[in-house]
Amino acid sequence: MPVLDRFLSSAELGRRWGAEEPPLCPAVSLAAWSWELPEIVRVVRLLWKSKGALQGTRPREQLEPEPAPGDGPGDARLRSPTGVLSERRGSYPFIDFRLLNNTTHSGEIGTKRKVKRLLSFQRYFHASRLLRGIIPQASLHLLDEDYLGQARHMLSKVGMWNFDIFLFDRLTNGNSLVTLLCHLFNTHGLIHHFQLDMVKLHRFLVMVQEDYHSQNPYHNAVHAADVTQAMHCYLKEPKLANFLTPLDIMLGLVAAAAHDVDHPGVNQPFLIKTKHHLANLYQNVSVLENHHWRSTVGMLRESRLLAHLPKEMTQDIEQQLGSLILATDINRQNEFLSRLKAHLDNQNLSLEDAGHRHFMLQIALKCADICNPCRIWDLSKLWSERVCEEFYRQGDLERKFELEISPLCNQQKDTIPSIQIGFMTYIAEPLFDEWARFTGDTRLSENMLSHLRKNKAIWRDLHHKQRTQSNDHLNEGTEKKDDQTLKEGGAP
Ligand SMILES: [Zn+2]
């Protein structure tokens, strides 16, 4: 049945058109029906509203709540209580005004004006793009052949460490994640091996890409694409590659692509202190990582990408994805680092063992997630600026709502060089030292460590210059003050 006829015969149209409209008959030719402009406008509006149905997908409001893997409760999608457009219950920052009313220092925060402002903030952040009336962009490439040709050329060098993901994102019209994953699934032979349906794969990847928040300076789909590209490089390391199964590779790539999906742009302590529903749901433990995992499982099930595989296999995939994504929780850094050190000291890693392979996939994903300091300076600097911008935005929110400003989030105190030097020294360097030990100091590992040390030296230089400048500024201020005091004849 042609799309428009199918649409015309839908109950939606019948319900909305009302009794005063001409009777509907699917057999009536549309061409023979002369419509006035207002009617055409109404049909176009209804067509947009029925977009989900026209695309052959189940409308979101009909979806059952996702049963979560394991014993925990699910948070992927909820049935709309109103029966109209349902909202994907995501991770937009949410401030519980009861918390603010209860704070001792709140003073006049409970006034009507404050609460009204808070509610409008809450409404703005909590509303999904759909509820705000923004139609998701189609993932079609609208660029000319030159751009696509250049993107294709870049893909031929996707295994190079100096791959510029920002340029690739521009060349693919903001579709770097979908384009990269389709390419990698193909080159790793995963589509053939798992007999994947290309339409379902594309649908899944578009869902993942769309669920990243493009307004986040750092935790957006380009970061996911960057992590996936790094993961691809690590999966090619001979020490690992010689043992990996197609399932390991698929898990590694999907986990990298979805490891931060629906990230709200604020960290776990912020979600806890503002009593966000996700903090409550996951009882303040790996709140974001649990949400990224459960969201990924929800999208995998909704896309039916793996529906043709045996149930035990899909359950295993969902669990392994969880274990990989949960490993990216930075609070668990020491746990993973000491386990890796112990394995390397005792030389007891045996990658024929599925458990050990899974552990090294976790480590590879952790490395990919924090590999920004190991990129060439131009790319590394851009990532550093973006992540600090996201921290500062959180600090601004905390200041606005009179909450304690989180560490690293105070733009006046925490400079980009100081944040980067600390991150490189205490988090990145120890992990990449051990990774290099595992790979047997390959060219890639040495290259990464060399960039890391060079970048750290540049940040140190900048840090030193900034301190000298601010000291000069302070001294200037003191000298001026002294001059003024002397002129006024007062004591210094
Ligand atoms: Zn990440």
How would you portray this structure in words?
Residues about 1-40, about 45-75, about 75-90, about 95-110, about 115-140 and about 485-490 have low confidence and may be disordered. The N and C termini lie far apart (about 90 Å). α14 runs parallel beside α20 (about 355-370), α18 (about 310-325) crosses α20 and α22 (about 415-440) runs antiparallel to α23 (about 445-490). It contains 23 helices and no strands. By secondary structure, it is mostly helical. The structure holds zinc ion. Zinc ion (ZN) binds near residues 259 and 369. Pathway: Purine metabolism; 3',5'-cyclic AMP degradation; AMP from 3',5'-cyclic AMP: step 1/1. It comes from Pleurodeles waltl (Iberian ribbed newt). It catalyses: 3',5'-cyclic AMP + H2O = AMP + H(+). This is Phosphodiesterase. Keywords: cAMP, Hydrolase, Metal-binding.
Keywords:
492 residues, globular, disordered C terminus
Short description:
It catalyses: 3',5'-cyclic AMP + H2O = AMP + H(+). Helices cover 61% and strands 0% of the residues. The chain is mainly alpha-helical.
Number of DSSP E strands: 0
Helix-strand topology string: HHHHHHHHHHHHHHHHHHHHHHH
**Span of the ends, CA to CA:** 91 Å
Task: Estimate the mean pLDDT confidence.
Answer: 78
**Distinct small molecules bound, one entry per kind:** zinc ion
The class by helix and strand makeup works out as mainly alpha
Beta-strand content bin: under 5%
Main β sheet profile: none
The low-pLDDT segments are 1-41, 43-73, 76-89, 94-111, 113-141, 485-492
Helical element count?
A: 23
- The helicity comes to 55-70%
Q: What's the gyration radius in Å?
A: 27 Å
Identify the overall geometry. globular
